[in-house]
Every structure is written in C-alpha cells, then in structure tokens.
Amino acid sequence: MGTADYLTGRWAFVLRVLAGPAAFAVVLAAPLTGLAPEAHVAVGGYAWIVAWWVTTPVPWAVTSFLPFVLLPLGAGMRLAEVATTYGHVILPYLIGVMLFGHAFQKHGLARRIALAALCVPGVARSGTGLIVAILVVSAVMSTVFSDLAVIVMMTPIVLSLTRSVAPGAKRMRAAASLAVLYGAAAGALATPTGIVFNALALSLLDQLTGYSVSFAQWTSTGVILTVAHFPVCYLILKYMLPPEVQAIPNAHARFLKEREQLGPMSRGERNILFVLILMLALWTLPTVAEIGFLEIWYVPPVAMVLLFVLPVDANRGEMTLEARDFQQGVGWNVLFLVLGGMALADVLTTLGAIDWLAGRLTGNVTAGALPWVAGLATPLLTQLASGAATSIMVSTILFPIADALGYNPTILARIIAGTAQAVAFPWSSPAAAATFAFGAVGFGTMFRVGLVATVLTSILVILLSMILVPVMQAFTVG
Predict the structure, then answer these.
(1) How many CB atoms lie under 10 A from the CB of residue 208?
(2) How far is 329 from 106, CA to CA, in rounded Å?
(3) Which one of 109, 198, 205, 349 is least enclosed by Cβ atoms within 10 Å?
(4) Mean pLDDT across the chain, nearest whole number?
C-alpha cells in the first residue's frame, strides 16, 4: 500500500469514527422542546450508535455496548440499570436458533434435504423449471436456518449443475444464483426462526405495545407471504434473465448421483431431525392446549440443550454439538447488535423519549400511511445499514405511533420484518455479499434485477400484511 493509499484509508477511518460523536453533538444541540435532559442524551446516544452501525468503524457488537459508556455519563443511569436492559428473552432464543442452524450444516442434513427436493422427478427438466425448483428449495430451507447458510450450501450445487449442462450460459448461472438469494429471502418470512428480523420485530412489538404473536400466528401469515413471493420472483428472473438453455435432460440423474454419494443418514442427522420435529410440536401445541410456559421464546433453548446432550458416538463421548460449536455456531456480532438495539428501545421508552417522539409525529402521520411508511422506509434504510439495525430503528419509532393512533402495530411488525432484507447491493447484507462473491452475478445485474425485486416484493408484503394480519387474527392483545 502506498503512502497516499495509507493516508486515504486512515482519514476514511477517522471520518467513520467521528460520524458517531458528530451525530451525538447535532442531536444535543437541537432544541427538542419538551424532552427531558436525560432523554435528550439518550436520543443523542441513539444517533451515535446508529451512525456507527452504518459506517462500522468498529464491529456492530462493540457499538452495541456504547450505552454502558454514554448513559451513565449524561442520562443519569447507573451502570447496573443499563445492564438490566440487556437481559431479554431474545438472547437465549437467538442463540438456540443459530446453533440449530449450525447443527444442520455441520452434519450435512441441509444438503441432503436440498438434494432430495431437487431429485423429485420433473423438477429440473428445463432452465425455467430449474429456477422454480431452486426458489422453492431455498425457501423451504430458509424457514429453518439462516439465509446466509442456505446460500453457502445451495449456490455451489446449482452453479455446478448449470456449469455442466450449459457451460456458456451466463444468464442461466446468474438467474440460478439469484434464485437462491430470493428464495432464501422469501422463506425467511415464513416462520419466526427464518431470520433475525422476525424475532426482533416480535420482541419489540411485545416490549413497546403489549401486542404479542405466537409461532402459529406468525407462520399462518408468513407461509402465505412466502408462497406469494414465488411467482413474483420467478417472473422477474424469467424475463430479466431468460435462461439460454431450455431442456436439461440429465439433471435428474446428476442430482441422484450427488445424493447417492451422501450415503445413509448419520446419527447426527437423525438427532437433528428428531429435535426439529420436537420443536415444531412444541411450537404448535399451544394452538390445541393452554400451556402457560410454552411461549414462542421457550423452544430454541430446549433444542440447544438437546443438541449438546444427544450423542453421535456415545463410546467416544461425542455429542451432536460440542463446546467449539458454541463459539463457531453463534453469530455474536449480530446477536449483540440485536441486544444493544433492544436495550436502547427499553431506555428510550423508560426515559420518555418514545412517547415524546410519538407525540410529535402523530399529528403529522395518519394511521393509513403507517404501513407504507414502514414498507418503503425499511428497504431504503436497509441499503445503508444492516437489516437488524434498520428493524430496530423503524420498529422503535413506528410501533408506539401506531399504538397511539389506534392502528394495529402487528401489521407493521409483519411489514418491517418482511422488507428488511436487502438484495440489490453486494454490501447490503451478508446474504447478498455471499451471492455476489460466488462470481455468477455481476454488480450491474444484481442491482438491476434486485431493485425490481425489492420494489415489487415490498409492495406485495405491504398489501398482503394489511389484509392477512387482521383477517386471520394473527396477534394477541395484552
């Protein structure tokens, strides 16, 4: 690196660092009439944290600990008070979900399920048929574990196939790669475990409004939203990236050969399948019986414990998950971003900042405009900040406003979680970055197709959420 490059990099880092204190200073200097001084400092701290989440001079997790530094200094909160805001049910829930997805990858069950689906006769006989199959398989897998994991596992499989059946078909390879990304994004809407935005929106919904949503209630609308994505994404890929190859005569045989190479199901895979069935049973049991402790947050910790005690090889003391998996399987950076956001929401609520903001905005925003504000602001902001950070920002602001205006905030939770996934830029999300990194999709193609996909799917999510949530009574009040 030359001297000029070093200086440029150093000053760029300095500017990213200064973005936080600058945002803090601007908010403190603003005449926020009627806001208590402690709340004013908390709002300034919120601006600092958001600025650093966007510019990332330090990891998200480090930024999420800024409340421990800022709030005791200016908001009159003791360190112990700040610490209590980080204790939330979402912590064990997310750790359990992340470790379960890690177990799927570690033991190869996800790859087995993907190949089994692609081996269904008639699924991949043509280029367009293959795109449909990839969308559906990626979506189904994404209901269980992260979109990034789906992309890392599925993309090499589909690119290998397209490369072998059509070596020069660049559009087909790009369409197949984007089908994995869009399918994973669609499947993440189906269940609360699909992506972190779902749990985040549900947790903030309960924390800020008193509305709650069960696993079954969320899934009842989520499955419909996922299925509705298929024709939209398929038509976008078909007409914007039409495959050069129509017939794929040997696709079924190729997938069969790959599946056969996996051999019989291992003990680890059987353990994970058992835990998956148990999780689904525990989540759906409250729909047929009143069981107080079976909240949506209860099940992933149960699964986590089971994965660490179910043996793969009892003689050698080898379990389905082991100590090193706890380090490798949890996305600690995202986890603490979420916890920091939850803590900030709690602090801003306690100090009265949320009520103050709601009071200022309720006169300027109508109830009917709220879903469109949520559904258009979220995908726009997600291109600049992470989906989790965006979900925290939009939810923290709009949920109390909806409650004050008498608008069902559950609709907004569904919209925010459904539009927080970024697919237009390689840097917008880890999932988009991974897709771009495989090299089958150029920047121009990702942006052009992703922009259309973002606009159309956001409108789809807004309209369907406004209809499905109230019609299906997919919420509980109080």
Answers:
(1) 23
(2) 9
(3) 349
(4) 83
| CB contact at 8 A, 133 and 123 | yes
Q: How far is residue 132 from each of residues 84, 198, 229, 366, 447, measured CA to CA in Å?
A: 47, 25, 11, 40, 21
**Pick from 268, 275, 264: nearest CA to 311:** 268
Residue 175 phi/psi, 5-degree rounding, is -65, -40
The confidence band for 358, taking pLDDT boundaries of 50, 70 and 90, is low
> For the segment 230-260, what is each residue's pLDDT rounded down to a tens digit?
999 999 999 998 887 776 666 667 777 777 8
Tally the residues of the chain: 478
Nearest alpha-carbon partner for 410 in 458, 468, 334:
468
Average confidence (pLDDT) over 259-266: 83
Contact 450, 241 (CB under 8 A): no
Q: Mark residue 211 as left, alpha or beta (left: phi above 0; alpha: psi -120 to 50; beta: remaining).
A: beta
Query: Which pLDDT value is given to residue 384?
Result: 61
Q: Global pTM? A: 0.71
